[in-house]
Structures are given as structure tokens and as C-alpha cells.
């Protein structure tokens, strides 16, 4: 009888504590291991990424200026005549001093002196806390994809974001240089590509001209005359709803 009682106690102990090692469930993560409130954006090129000669831009319109709702196109990524139309934030990835690639965020804000037509200017660089934005410069191990993971709280706006993928020459002070390529069949002059993401959902994205809905898209034969490092091959957005 005593042996039976001891055996049953041991079984219960094993179940609860794994004989000395506490068994607790791991903290549940979101898609791709993201925490609630995080987003990851991937950028693919046809050839090996060149962070020294090109800037890779993730252009985001979070809907802060209702009159400029829509896709941020690279042809407006300048002062006159575009004045950064439809652009609220730019996540810029390039080699900083020392040659190491880094991801930097800049806001684009309405200039109060712009008159009836909103004119945007580059705001001060966003200085996030440690870990709030993380760059993996070789996400696929092939040198043709980078991933930026960041806290969505760094970017203010509505729940529907428009996102675009650009390649430019190096710029100054957060202002991208001359455009080299952009998502869409017409490259730097394209105004057909459109990509929206619902930040309240895990997988609710819509891409136009690239095969319908989905958070993963590719560029079938777009702009093939450029160096491989500047040829956009596709992208992806992974979103973890909720707040940190």
C-alpha cells in the first residue's frame, strides 16, 4: 500500500515538475516568432545586395494625411514637384560609416507653410530604444534578401498601411538619392503597383499587379536592364497584431 502511494506521488510530481525541472509553456509568439505589435518587412533583389552603392527604401504611408491616402511612389520622392507625396515614413537600409549596413527611420511631416496642398518635409531621424528596430542584412543566407523587424508603435497612423519597395542612389540627411528602381512593371515611373496591409490582422495584405492578395509577392520580369543589386525581385510583410 505504501509503495502504491509513493508511486502515485512520484507520477504526479513527474507530471507537474518533470522530476525537478519545472514544466511551463513557452511564451506564445506571433507569426515568424514576432511579438505582438511587431512587423517584419523583407526586401529581395535579383543579385547580391549592395549596401554601399544603393539605398534600399521601405516607403510607408500610414494614413496621417487623409488627402494623401494611397501608395507612395518613388517618382514623388523629392522636393518639387512631388514633395514626398503619400510618404509618412521611410525605413532606409544602407551602409553607414564603417561599411556596416543599418536600418534608419525618418518621418515625413507636413510643412505648415505649404498652403492648400500638403507639402511634406523630412523630420528628425527616429531614435528608437534598443531592439525596437533590428536589421538582418542577409535574411535568406544568399545575400539577396534583408529583413527589418520593428515595433509598429514607432510609426503612427491608421490600421491600413500602404507600403512600397524602392532602390535609390545614396542620399544625404535622410533624403534618398536619385531613384533607380521601384516595385511595379514601370520601375521608377510606375503608378500601378499597390500594396496595403491591415495592421490588425496576421495575414491580410493586398498586392495589385503581382498575382492578387497575399503578404508575399514577387516581381515577374520587372526592369531587367539594371545591375542585379538594384533589380527588385519581391518582398513580404509579416505582421503580429496587438500591442507589445
Question: How would you summarize the topology of this molecule?
Answer:
Blueprint lengths: L1 H16 L20 E8 L9 E7 L27 E7 L5 E10 L9 E3 L10 E4 L8 E7 L8 E9 L10 E4 L11 E5 L6 E4 L7 E3 L13 E8 L5
Q: What's the rounded overall pLDDT mean? A: 85
Radius of gyration: 22 Å
- Output the number of helix runs: 1
Number of strands: 13
The backbone outline, from C-alpha atoms, is: globular
Q: Which secondary-structure class do the elements indicate?
A: mainly beta
Question: What percentage of the residues does DSSP assign to strands (E)?
Answer: 25-35%
Q: Low-confidence parts, pLDDT < 50 over ≥5 residues?
A: 1-27
What is the H/E order?
HEEEEEEEEEEEEE
Helix percent band: under 10%
Largest β sheet strand count, sense and barrel closure: 8 strands, antiparallel
Please provide a brief summary of the model.
It contains 1 helix and 13 strands. By secondary structure, the chain is mostly beta strands. A hairpin with a 6-residue loop joins strand 10 and strand 11.
